[in-house]
Each structure stands twice: as C-alpha cells, then as structure tokens.
Design a protein that fits this description.
Helix 4 crosses helix 5. This protein is α/β, with parallel strands linked by helices. The two termini are 13 Å apart. Strands 3-2-4-1-5-6-7 form a seven-stranded parallel sheet, sandwiched between helices. It contains nine helices and seven strands. The structure holds adenosine-5'-triphosphate and magnesium ion. Adenosine-5'-triphosphate binds next to helix 1 and helix 8.
Length: 299
C-alpha cells in the first residue's frame, strides 16, 4: 500500500517545495515508485520539474492540470500523470520512477469559483480518483501551499502522514502550532466523509529542519520545537511517535540553482566541481532513507 504524505507548514518559504522535490527524487533513486502532486497554485514544483516549455502548455489550456479533475466529464487524475517526469535538455528520461501531477496558476479558481456538490466535497472527488491509481506507487507526496484551503485539503484528506518542513526560527514554530490547530478543525469538518478503508485521518509525523547554515547554532529553536511537539504528543494531537527528524538539510546554493536548471539536486552531481553539492545531496538521501525506515504510522 502506498504511503501518502503531505508536506505542509503554515509558514511560507520554509522550503516545502525544495524538500519535497528532492526527497521524491531521493526515494525514486532508491528504487521506489513515487507520485508527486503539486497542490500549490504558485506551480513551483510543476515549473521546476516540467521546465517552462512543457509547463507553459498546461498553463495556457488547463489541459493536464490538476484543476481539470474537478470538472465532471473531463480528465481524471489517472489521465494527467506525467510519467517519469524528469528529463534532461535533450528530452531523455533521467529519473525513472518519479511521476508528477502538475498544476497551473488557475488552481486558485478551486478556492474562489468552484461550486461543486456539497454532498461530494472537492477533497472527496480528489480522494476517489486517487484511489484508482494508488496501488501503482510506494509513495504519494503532496506539495501544499502554506494554508489548509481547498487545494491543501485534497492532500490532507487523502494522506495518512504529514511532514512539516521548518526553519529554525520563531515563525516556523508559530506556523507549526497553527497547522496542528487548523488540521484538527479540518478533520472534524471532513470526518463524516471518511471511509473506514481510508484509515485514520492524517497526523503529523515529524518536523524537518531546512536551510541550516554552517556554524549557526540551532539548539535553542530546536529545543523549543521539541517542547511544542512533546505537548502535542501528550495531547494526542500529533502521531504518538512524532519527532524532529534526525536528518536536517543544510543551506546550499545548489538548491536554488537546481530550480533554474529544472532538475532535482541529485541529478546535478556530475556538473559539480565545488564539492558542496555532494553534501546536500547526502542530506536528501538520508532524509529519504529516514522516511523509509520510520515506516507508516503504527508500524
Ligand atoms: N536547503 C536550502 N538551501 C538553500 N536554499 C534553499 C534551501 N531550501 C530552499 N531554499 C530556497 O528557499 C526559497 C524557498 O524555498 P521553497 O520554494 O522550497 O519554499 P516553500 O516553503 O515551498 O515556499 P512557499 O510557501 O512559497 O510554497 C527558494 O528560493 C529555495 O530555492
Ligand atoms: Mg512551495
């Protein structure tokens, strides 16, 4: 059964997209079959992995973008999966096993204009379509914007686990606290639509610290985050084994450069000559490994 994980924090710009794209690549490189959903109308993950030429076509027409699955009679999720999405400049597939369901800028219409059927909310439409293809994957990952509005709700309703990317600062702590609060409320609102087969509602599994600069001491913000996590665990508002991941991702220029080049960091290795890339690649591989080793909730 696929493990379904949302990457979300109420704080923007903490590195959710960078973390999910590079972790997805790390999992695929370890031989796992991975499906990544871009649920953020900013389309960062889609533009990164498709590069502009392929993404522009989707943005111009809506065809192949996630918004289209909410229109009855049009595409289903299974029709809009980009198989083995990562290509080099010649169009050769360079990362088999990583598939993408992309978005375009119009996903914002899901928040504003979508009427839908109140008896079948948007997240149930999404979850039912996802269920048709779930068994093709080991991992299904959802890149969410920093809120739990409708697009995020699709990921949060359909997943079982939540990973919270964070920076070692006070705003990330506030973002985490707000997230747990909003999650609880959404689970209450959506509870009547959950089927037993879906398993329990998603719980926070852990926090990953991202963009850690060399020589910067993060012990105090880390301790504060750990205290908050302990409180949430005691109150059963996060998973019983929720933790701060041992792996933390260092700050590295190459992470920013990878976006421009349209590749996950790990695939830039050959182009490296400054040595720093190796190390952040190791961080992402370790994180992929740590996620695999921790197993699903309750394992
Ligand atoms: N480990 C890292 N080292 C250096 N730069 C990083 C790292 N992780 C992320 N960044 C950079 O930080 C910026 C924000 O990252 P990213 O877009 O992944 O955050 P996000 O949480 O997805 O943002 P949003 O809330 O807008 O979706 C980007 O410019 C990205 O390249
Ligand atoms: Mg993002």
């Amino acid at each position: 059964m696929a493990r379904k994980i949302s990457f979300i924090n109420y704080k923007g710009g903490v590195g959710k997209t960078s973390l999910i794209v590079n972790t997805a690549a790390g999992l695929a490189r370890l031989g796992k079959k991975v499906l990544l959903f871009d649920l953020d109308t900013q389309s960062n993950a889609s533009i990164w992995l498709l590069r502009l030429e392929r993404w522009n076509k989707i943005n111009a027409t809506n065809e192949g973008a996630i918004l289209s699955i909410f229109d009855p009679g049009t595409a289903k999720i299974r029709d809009i999966v980009f198989r083995d999405v990562v290509e080099d400049k010649t169009g050769a597939k360079v990362l088999p096993g990583l598939d993408l369901v992309p978005t375009n800028f119009n996903l914002v219409d899901l928040e504003n204009e979508y009427a839908g059927d109140p008896k079948v909310p948007h997240y149930l439409v999404f979850q039912r379509q996802l269920a048709e293809i779930e068994d093709q994957y080991d991992y299904i990952l959802f890149d969410c914007p920093p809120n739990i509005l409708r697009a995020s709700q699709c990921g949060v309703f359909s997943c079982n686990e939540i990973i919270v990317p964070a920076n070692p600062d006070a705003l990330s702590l506030i973002g985490f606290t707000l997230l747990v609060d909003k999650l609880g409320r959404f689970h209450q609102v959506s509870a009547s639509f959950r089927q037993a087969a879906m398993g329990p509602a998603a719980q926070v599994r852990g926090i990953v610290f991202n963009s850690i600069k060399t020589g910067v001491d993060i012990e105090v913000p880390k301790m504060r985050m750990q205290l908050r996590m302990n409180q949430f665990r005691a109150a059963k508002r996060v998973a019983a084994d929720a933790k701060i991941f041992q792996t933390q991702i260092r700050d590295a220029m190459v992470v920013r450069r990878a976006v421009t080049l349209g590749l996950p960091v790990a695939l830039l290795a050959q182009e490296s000559d400054d040595g720093s890339q190796e190390s952040v690649i190791t961080d992402y591989r370790r994180l992929a490994d740590e996620i695999i080793r921790m197993g699903p909730i309750g394992s």
